[in-house]
Every structure is written in structure tokens, then in C-alpha cells.
Write a structure and sequence with these properties.
Two copies of one chain form a homodimer. By secondary structure, chain A is α+β, with helices and mostly antiparallel strands. Chain A is built from twelve helices and eleven strands. Chain A folds into three domains: 103 residues, Hypothetical Oxidoreductase Yiak, Chain: A, domain 1; 159 residues, 2-Layer Sandwich (Ribosomal Protein S8, Chain: A, domain 1); 43 residues, 2-Layer Sandwich (Wheat Germ Agglutinin (Isolectin 2), domain 1). In chain A, helix 1 packs across helix 2, helix 4 runs parallel beside helix 5 and helix 6 packs across helix 7.
């Protein structure tokens, strides 16, 4: 049941870099651009971890864009969140345009703290930046033994159902359900059927999409990634349903944080100042009995009949395995990206 | 952007019944089956309202099944929720197999009360029954001026991605964003692309689905509703994505309420004892500025370019209009269903 568009790790242009070396090299890049040692190390570790668990498009492959955001002044390496309001179990924080991954990790940590006292904790974070991968922060909650949920809005990149114009963000959401052995269940997905990263990967590999992913330039639904890149009309999941979900996730993000909606982000020269929501539940709800319900449900799911005899997987099932493999063999990184990163680690400017 | 599968109101077999008459007639049926006057009137009003706003499959068309649930003992007309646990902003309630709509309305009301004190309120409701329409309770929050969200699990009726066997519920979720004029934004949808009700409507009208809705008996994706009914393999929205979302909604429902998951409901002889989650946000987050963000975002969305010149609608946009029309002209009700209901209003047993 895991996403069918997990990124390939077997292209000849992909090399394997030891996790620790990846972290240290990216950390040097960040320190050269104004991060303190501690914050640079933490931010680099989050980004490296995303590649480690098999999502390079939201990990190391996005590092150069992350650096660009700092150099253009959209991301302030030294900013950290400031609390604007507290209403019991709900807090609103201003991300002050700090680094998205650090802000988001902080916000989920705060939601967990509130949840431990109040049963549920919610943090709205406005004026923050791209967090790279939604799953990082839901998984963080699961690692802390809690049920965690988070979503973000983005710049407009998805036409609403019935329209040809990108007015909605693809607004990723992640939900993680903790398990005692660390093999948490986690859904992590955007409201578009395929990310632009997944479309580009399919083009590089010369293949069609496994299911329709958008419209061609004539307005017909297609599996051709080239056509979708040209039309800029990816499909929302479930057509009108994903379109509606994307809208309400955007509005809830903006309202709960008191921040911008996708429409407002789209009026800027670039994507910054996004709005996010973090929700965590206290561990009181995880009893021997409720944990058994999770295990029984997964056991039942994985026994589901299939046409081809393969067993059904639950979302997130392969994370622990990928992590272990890549920790042993090195993290798959695009050779070209790695060349750029090593260059940036010894100098202060992005080329071009 | 509204769902393309809204149910038809123009079939020759559909008559129009004044809202008040519909409520009173259903209320009589309920009182004959053990409801008190007050609870019968409230329950009938919720069910009639679902048809009033254009969702008869989750309104009056489901009333006979609702009555069957009472007569078979799955729904206890006199039960109301009992609080099992309170952890600050999170409460867990036992629905004691009471009527789903009354239990759910109570739970959202309780979430609203908690939210007004704590900024956010969450109620997990276990051991409850089919609530008919998710949107009823999210809309209830919006009518109270709050942001509201709720979801439920169901009996297994959706094969996980990669499987031929229904192991997941289609687990509807509703999210409502309040607007001052009452024309709230609301997403209300299940994790299957089409409900069985929508498939049956398409068959009755002799049409194919507008987009693929499931698998045929040979395992190919199809727009033929007959084939999907035969295979019992509807498609999740976004293929693997809706499958993953359905699973995490099920697990969160079970954990937050301390109740059953879909897998456990599936072991019973019928669908009862489901698990639900209700989340409401305090009105503190709705300021002049954040309300303006909602209006600006909807304004931007509805101006989106289209191929055919039609304007893009937001989810829930037509609810107020349908409500007004049907209040004036009468609620569309299947003539056959209405015949059964009037018969049941004067006697105590469901035929057959």
C-alpha cells in the first residue's frame, strides 16, 4: 500500500555517501551561511535523514534550493519561533522566517509538550518556511511515543478541479501512529497525485506514470509526465476530492496559525512565509488494549488477498528497513548534487 | 470544485415533501421504536436536513436502514454518551450504541465547549453508530462560529491498494471553515472515489462514471459502475494515497476514542460500535484579519481560469442555496422510500 512512486536509488548518476559524512558536509555549508554549529548540525541531520529513509526529493536533492533560499534572504538562519498566543491547548507561534525544518521540529516538540499536559496539543506556526518533508515531524511525534499529525500550505502549484490555473497548494499532510518497536505507521502525502519531483524522475527514466497524473496541453487526462510538466496541470488525488481537501487544509493552516494562505504566498516573488499546523495526542490514549488494536488491524491488513500473491504493506512500513540499509551502505545521493554540495562546503556562494 | 457526483433530484421517482412534514413523519417512526419525543424530533431533523441540503443517500434514503438497526438491536434509541476519560482538552466518551446522529451531535457540541476554554477541543467517541453524514457535525461547528473537523471509521468496504479484499473502511472526514454569512466552506468526503450509493445512482441513470471508480472483475480499472458493484473493488481516492489515508484515519479513530478499528467492526454481523473523532477550534483564532484571509482566498479561487468559462466553486458552496430551494419547494425524496416511511409512521415493524 506504500506509494508507488518512491524514488529510485539505482540510477548510475547516484552515489552512496556515508550518513555522517553527508551530515557534516551539509552542516559546513550551513555554518558558512550563518547557522550556528548546533543549528547547522540539526538542520543538516534532518535533511540527510530524509534521503536516508528514501525520500531524496525532499532531502538532499532539495539542499541546493534550501541554500538558495538563505542566500536570497527568504530564510533567516538565525531566527527561531516566537510565541504570539496561548489558549490552553492551542498555541500560535511566529516562525520569523527561520529555517523551515528547525521551526517545524520545534513546533511539533511544543505540541508534544502541550499534549502531555492537556491530552492534545496543537501549534499553529505562521511565517515559516518549507519544512522539506512532512513525515519528518509526524515521525518525530511517533518516536516520542505519540500520535502526531501535521500539515502545511505551499505556494499555488495545483489547479482546483475544473480549472486550468494553479490556485491551490498541494498542501502535504502527515499522520503517524506509534508502535512500540519503532516500525510506526505513517501516511505522508501531498494532495497532488504526483509531485513535480516524481514527474521529473519519470521523465529521466523514460517511463509513463503508473496511473493518470494530470492533464495534457489539450486538456485530456494523461499518464505522460512530459505533458503534465508542460501544461502545469497535475491532478489532485481523487479529482474534486483532493482539490477540496487541499483548499480546507490551506484555510485551516492559515486560520490556526494566523498566517498566510496559498493565495497570499503566491503573490510573493517566491515561496516563503508559509503556514503550518502540528497536532499531537498525549500518551494516555496508548494503553495495552489500544496498542493491541493497532497490531491486530495491521495484521489483518497485511493478510489481505492480492491478485499477484504479494503481501499488502502499510504506509511507512519500509522506512525502518530503508534506514537500516542506507545507514550500512551509504545514503543514495545524486552524484551531481553531491559535487555541488562538496563545492559549497568550501566556499560561500551558490554558483549561477 | 464541488463533488461531481451530487445526487440527482430530478428522477421521476422523486417527489417533494415539505421539510416539516418529513421531520414529523420520521419522528413518529422513531417514537414508535423507543425514542423519546425530544430525541426523536432531533434525530429526524438531522436526517431530513441531510436530504434538504442535497445528500439524500446519507439522509432520508438511509432512514429505512436506520430503523432496521434499531429493530435488530444494533442501535439503542435510549442510550446517550457516557464520559470515560478527561485529559484537559481531550475527552473520551462511550457512545453506548446510541443513535449515531445524536451521539455525534453531542460529541461535537462537547468538543466546541472544550475548545472555547482550551483553544482546541477533541472528543473521541467509541462504541457509537453510523452518523449518516460527516458534514452534519463539521457544519454544526461552523454554525457555532468555529472551525470543526470530524472523521469516523466504518465496516471494511474498501480494498487497500494492491489488494482485492475489502479490509479498510472508506472512513469519511469532514472539515468546515466558518464564514460570517453562514456560507461556510466544507469538505465532506469518504476515501473511496465513489460511494456505493453513487455507483447505484449511476446504474439507475444508465451512465458511466465521470472518472475511473474501481476495478472490473478481471482487475482492470473501469468507469462502469456495474463492474465495480460486481467486483466489490471501488478505488480509493488517489489510489495508494487514499488507501493510506483510510488506514491512518481508522487507527486514529480507534486510538483517540479507545474504540474498535474497521478490522474489528468487520468481525461483527453488522456495522455497529464504530469509532469517531471530533475536533473543534476556539473562536479566538477567528479575527478580523484571519476572516479576511478566508474571503481573499475564496475570491482568488473562484476567479481561477477554466476551459469552459464556468466559475470554480468551493466545496460546500451550494449547500445554502440547495437548502433554501428545497425548503421552498419541498425536500426531494424517493417516492418509494416515502411510501415506506409513511407506512412505518403508523405501525411498529419494518416489512420483510
Amino acid at each position: 500500500m506504500e506509494t508507488d512512486d518512491k524514488e529510485t536509488e539505482h540510477s548510475p548518476a547516484v552515489i552512496r555517501v556515508p550518513f555522517q559524512r553527508l551530515c557534516e558536509t551539509m552542516c559546513r555549508c550551513l555554518i558558512l551561511r550563518g547557522f550556528t554549529q548546533d543549528r547547522g548540525a540539526r538542520c543538516a541531520a534532518i535533511i540527510a535523514e530524509n534521503s536516508l529513509v528514501g525520500v531524496p526529493s525532499h532531502g538532499v536533492n532539495r539542499f541546493l534550493r534550501f541554500i538558495e533560499g538563505i542566500e536570497r534572504g527568504w530564510v533567516d538562519p538565525r531566527s527561531s519561533p516566537h510565541r504570539l498566543g496561548s489558549h490552553g491547548a492551542l498555541e500560535q507561534w511566529d516562525g520569523r522566517l527561520g529555517p523551515g525544518p528547525l521551526n517545524a521540529e520545534f513546533a511539533m516538540q511544543r505540541a508534544l509538550e502541550i499534549a502531555s499536559a492537556q491530552g492534545v496539543g496543537c501549534v499553529g506556526l505562521r511565517n515559516t518556511n518549507h519544512w522539506l518533508r512532512a513525515g519528518t515531524y509526524a515521525w518525530q511525534a511517533a518516536q516520542a511515543g505519540s500520535l502526531g499529525l501535521c500539515f502545511t500550505n505551499t505556494e499555488p502549484n495545483l489547479p482546483p478541479w475544473g480549472s486550468t490555473e494553479a490556485k491551490l497548494g498541494n498542501n502535504p499532510i502527515a499522520v503517524a501512529v506509534p508502535r512500540a518497536d519503532g516500525r510506526h505507521v505513517m501516511f505522508d502525502g501531498a494532495m497532488s497525485q504526483f509531485s513535480y519531483g516524481a514527474l521529473e524522475t519519470a521523465i529521466l527514466e523514460g517511463r509513463q506514470l503508473p496511473v493518470p497524473g494530470g492533464f495534457d496541453r489539450l486538456g485530456a487526462i494523461t499518464t505522460d509526465p512530459n505533458e503534465i510538466i508542460s501544461s502545469r496541470r497535475p491532478l489532485p488525488i481523487g479529482y474534486w476530492k483532493g482539490s477540496g481537501l487541499a483548499l480546507v487544509l490551506d484555510l485551516v493552516s492559515a486560520l490556526v496559525s494566523g498566517g498566510q494562505s496559498s493565495a497570499m504566498i503566491g503573490q510573493q516573488e517566491a515561496e516563503y512565509g508559509v503556514s503550518q499546523v502540528f497536532l499531537a495526542f498525549g500518551t494516555q490514549i496508548l494503553t495495552v488494549r489500544t496498542r493491541a488494536v493497532v497490531e491486530e488491524t495491521l495484521h489483518d491488513l497485511c493478510r489481505a488477498q492480492t491478485d499477484d500473491g504479494r503481501h499488502v504493506t502499510y504506509p511507512g512500513e519500509r522506512i525502518a528497513e530503508r534506514r537500516q540499509t542506507n545507514m550500512r551502505t551509504g545514503v543514495p545521493v545524486s552524484a551531481q548534487v553531491w559535487g555541488e554540495i562538496t563545492r559549497l562546503a568550501s566556499q560561500g556562494e551558490v554558483a549561477g
